[in-house]
Amino acid sequence: MFREKGFEAATTREIADRADIAIATLFVYAKDKRDLLFLLINDELDTLLQKQFDVQPKDGSLLGQILHIFACQYEYFASDAVLFRAALHESFHFDSDTGKDGPQVKRWRERHERGMGYLEKIIEANQASGGIRPEVNPATAAWLLVSIYRAQTLRWLSGKTPTAKKGISQLREVMELLVNGLEK
């Protein structure tokens, strides 16, 4: 239903009818429509996150590691750009401090935090090997990487027909700029 009508236009009643279940049954699994959206993708994204960090890229450079991690997501997101466009948009809502988030949205946020932790470890490992200046705060660097990734992903998914190849190419360009810096 989200794919056909879009996230905003789809109703939980229509979703329950399409699934041939009572609407009350739908709410056993998801707190609201937003939570239902994340329910659709959380299991696969949990598996993807593990894959991103378990399989090390052949290019052991910082840029190679970063692109490996985020390219896995681009390839997955390209498989259903409409759904992931909605999920990314909904992930920017800030209800986590109000207690209004459903369990599936909480899972999304927890996975995001685990991903940030993995990125911090990559930064720390690169610091230990001399690839990153020792004064760089790993948490701040991870936050910056994810911020750029999210902005670039939103830009990429906003296109008419986002392909993984094009998205990864655009991401590489901005990540190269970050990793290599602006200085001459």
Automatic annotation (TrEMBL):
PROSITE patterns: HTH_TETR_2
InterPro entries: Homeodomain-like_sf, HTH-type_TetR-like_transc_reg, HTH_TetR, Tet_transcr_reg_TetR-rel_C_sf
Domain of life: Bacteria
Pfam families membership: TetR_N (PF00440)
Keywords, alphabetical: DNA-binding, Plasmid, Transcription, Transcription regulation
Presence of the UniProt keyword Mitochondrion in the record: no
DNA-binding interval(s): 11-30
Domain (HTH tetR-type) ranges: 1-48
The keyword DNA-binding is assigned to this record: yes
Single GO term (MF): DNA-binding transcription factor activity
UniProt-recorded name of the protein: HTH tetR-type domain-containing protein
